[in-house]
Specification:
alpha+beta; Nucleotidyltransferase, domain 5; globular; ATPase_NBD; 9-stranded mixed β-sheet; 29 strands; 35% helix; 7-stranded mixed β-sheet
Length: 617
């Protein structure tokens, strides 16, 4: 890193850490750093990045100190300098933040953010810039009554999902604002602006001395705003409706703003109009700069004075960007809970899913979205089966999967909902079914305990395939076509993705390639796994894309830009493409001949059994 070529920075403010990824213009990840909140900032007394509940907290309250995030920025900047990162070569920055979490700026914030001294840390100067001293965490579940009010205001959970992309969730920003306004009306009154963690980081990157008070607090990114239960997404052209769209554009929903602001309860708080002002503008073009880095950063840490700041987004949208998903591609994250993200050009709202605008779409392009599905019974259920039926041994589990995988003559399936499931909603318990004659019968145990190993993987991936099919089919389709394969490729990530038996089963069920991102190895010989922090890297990709657009070159869709840049990256490294690697993506397994047909033939009956199990105790 001794030359003068431009570099790019991506930040990720998650629940437990603030992370940074340094990239070059070829999208190579050069270095990464982090600040772990519990370990590095112990004086905030957090556990897992959140505060211990107090006696006065409502049940389910989960928050973190806002100054924890401020001080982590100070510490991260010091660590970047100590690590000799060439900060003067950074030409663009973007950030990711934990979704839904809200930050409340005080009336004094604009003045404070434009009169900072470079001789002092942010921590020493900005504490009074916040009207609320804590940030609600995504784990917070204290807003149940507010959620009921949100759904009632528009006609129920399904209608709220149609309007905002999701049904009401306790962690979402709208219900959290409702609670704050109800319990702390004076602090709400003293709030100049309300942002998300992503827009908070974007704002903090622009602070200094002599800036514009009117614009120093930055707006909210369109994709991140989809996790608030406040954004009206219905202007998406593909949504079926008997109502005229008229002049409707995506923006803050006035009915929900009136509810959250208490317009009918306390007019002195300003109602919907004042809350709309507090929320500010929505950034619809994530590749358009919101300004240059603030003078506090240029003078204290020698950032390049022309360094462009691009809108921050949520952690899930940023992860989506790290994989540059095209339509009919998906990410399946195999963790304690499993998460599925599917790219689509249609707005597909559903109470069981979350719908988001694509986090880096060109304003001139057509509609682009992704849907996110979250399942509680991920590795938790897989590990339970391993421990109960496979002697707590993964090798035994894998062998049983292969031995008992379904073939054309097998008629059995199982459901393993150890906790009340999200999809299908409320499903719980362990249910097994076999079919010896004409009817499916419930059974306590399979004839061989090893059958549970294949059953858990097959039922999970059939679930993900069925729901992916409904997303790809679009909102106008009343029947899911189970014969058509929904996806062209899947990125498998998370701890369980290192198990080749699990990913091979995924490939067989979905009938498509399972892939992983790679980058040129440090020694220049071949490819190495892309073991980096996907959130901060996705944010950095967006910064590179936005900066490249600003240079006057060809304006490309984000996905095309990333694919083309990674192909150039391979050529520069002297690496060929084709076969198992293309565009920085490596195929790790393909569906085996004849296997997908087995699952296509059973998925219809499987869905009927899922509905049966959901209603049985």
């Amino acid at each position: 890193m001794s030359d003068s070529t431009p570099l790019f920075l991506g930040l990720d403010a998650s629940t437990q850490a603030l992370k940074a990824s340094l990239l070059d213009a070829d999208l190579n990840v050069l270095s990464e750093l982090e600040v772990r909140f519990d370990r590095d900032l112990p004086h905030y007394k957090t556990t897992g990045g959140v505060s211990e509940p107090t006696a006065s907290d409502d049940a389910g309250t989960v928050v973190a100190p806002v100054m924890l995030y401020v001080e982590s920025l100070d510490m991260l900047a010091d660590r970047m300098r100590a690590a000799s990162w060439p900060l003067s070569r950074i030409h663009a920055v973007s950030a990711a933040g934990q979704q839904h979490a809200s930050v409340y700026f005080s009336r004094a914030a604009p003045k404070i953010f434009t009169t900072l001294s470079t001789d002092k840390t942010l921590t020493e100067q900005v504490e009074m810039a916040f009207s609320r001293k804590v940030v609600p965490n995504w784990q917070d579940s204290s807003t149940v009554e507010a959620c009921k009010a949100f759904e009632a205001a528009v006609g129920g959970a399904a209608e709220l999902a149609k309007v905002t992309g999701s049904k009401a969730h306790t962690r979402f920003t709208g219900p959290q604002i409702y609670k704050f306004r109800t319990q702390e009306p004076e602090a709400y009154k003293d709030t100049e602006r309300i942002g998300l963690v992503s827009s908070f980081i974007t704002t903090m990157l622009c602070v200094g001395s002599g800036g514009d008070e009117a614009t120093v607090i930055k707006g909210i990114d369109e994709s991140d705003a989809c996790g608030m239960n406040l954004l009206d997404m219905r202007a998406a052209s593909s949504i079926p409706s008997t109502e005229s769209r008229g002049n409707l554009e995506p923006g803050w929903n006035q009915t929900l703003l009136a509810l959250a602001s208490g317009e009918s309860e306390d007019p002195s708080l300003g109602g919907a109009a004042e809350l709309e002002r507090k929320l500010g503008v929505i950034y619809r073009d994530a590749g358009s700069s919101v300004g240059t880095v603030g003078s506090w950063w240029t003078q204290r840490y020698a950032f390049h004075p022309d360094c462009q700041i691009f809108p921050g987004t949520g952690d899930n949208p940023a992860t989506f960007l790290a994989f540059s998903l095209a339509e009919r591609q998906a990410i399946i994250s195999l963790g304690t809970s499993d998460t599925v993200m599917v790219a689509t050009h249609q707005y597909v709202p559903d109470p069981d899913f979350h719908a988001f605008f694509h986090p880096a779409r060109l304003p001139s392009s057509g509609d682009a979205f992704f849907n996110m599905l979250v399942y509680k019974s991920g590795s938790l259920a897989r590990e339970w089966v391993r421990d109960q039926y496979c002697a707590a041994d993964w090798e035994r589990f894998n062998a049983d999967v292969e031995k008992f995988k379904l073939d054309g003559g097998d008629k059995r399936t199982g459901f393993y909902w150890l906790r009340p499931e999200i999809i299908p909603s409320g499903a719980s318990g362990v249910h097994r079914y076999t079919k010896a004659g004409g009817d499916w019968e419930k059974t306590g145990e399979f004839s061989d305990s090893g059958m549970n190993a294949s059953a858990i993987l097959e039922t999970q991936f059939l679930n993900y395939r069925y729901r992916s099919s409904s997303i790809v089919a679009g909102p106008s389709s009343s029947v899911v076509d189970t014969n058509t394969l929904p996806l062209e490729s899947i990125y498998a990530v998370g701890g369980a993705s290192s198990n080749s038996t699990i990913t091979q089963t995924m490939a067989d069920v979905f009938g498509c390639d399972i892939v992983k991102p790679v980058q040129p190895a440090d020694d220049g010989k071949g490819w190495s796994p892309a073991n980096y922090n996907f959130c901060s890297v996705g944010a950095a990709y967006k910064a590179v894309w936005g900066w490249s657009r600003a240079q006057g070159g060809e304006v490309q869709e984000f996905d095309d830009f990333v694919h083309a840049t990674k192909s150039k990256q391979a050529k520069k490294a002297g690496l060929g493409e084709g076969g198992e690697v293309e565009g920085g993506v490596q195929v790790i397994c393909r569906p085996r001949e004849g296997r997908t047909k087995v699952y296509t033939e059973v998925i219809g009956e499987w869905k009927q059994l899922e509905e049966r199990a959901q209603n049985e105790k």
